[in-house]
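Supplementary Methods, section 5.1.

A reviewer requested that the exact input to the structure prediction be made available. We therefore reproduce it here, unchanged from the version used in the analyses.
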Amino acid sequence: TAVLMLDDRLRLEFQAGRSWFVNEPYANLLRLWPGRAQASELLAGPPSAAFVAEAEQAGRLFEAVRAWLGGQSERAADAFAELAGADPADGFAREMATSARVRALAEGAEGGALEQALAGARALTAQAALPPSQRLDVAALLRELGAVDEGRALAAEVGRTLASPRARRLAGP
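The structure derived from this sequence is encoded token-by-token as follows.
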């Protein structure tokens, strides 16, 4: 069991000062996690089935975010895709799944899987529901992978429907 943060135990306040201007979201998440109470422990009676389902969903979301912040892009992409599949209205999970997939493809290309990364990026461009910002992420990835003309064309497509400096930049030389 972790010690609760109370007015007389401001552990986080004192730890925060030591990491001023430090961008370590994964480390911060791990610092906060031990003090987290299980939601079911806060109830006076047994939890309802709906509550249990929501708590389980929240646990899956936490694991997906933890994978993302921990740099486990492939695992994060799969976890967010599972969340999006379970709830089609969850736009956050859907967009995070794509963002994590783009990052995983870039990492795969760095690891030598260039053809797989190109195929994955091309598969993402085929998704009609992909938001413009993520289409630009894929355009940037295509350019980084050497498919410059494909990246330019995708960025130009986005630029025709959205006045975006990023789209103009990616569509250019």
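The chain has a mean pLDDT of 82. These observations are discussed further in the main text.
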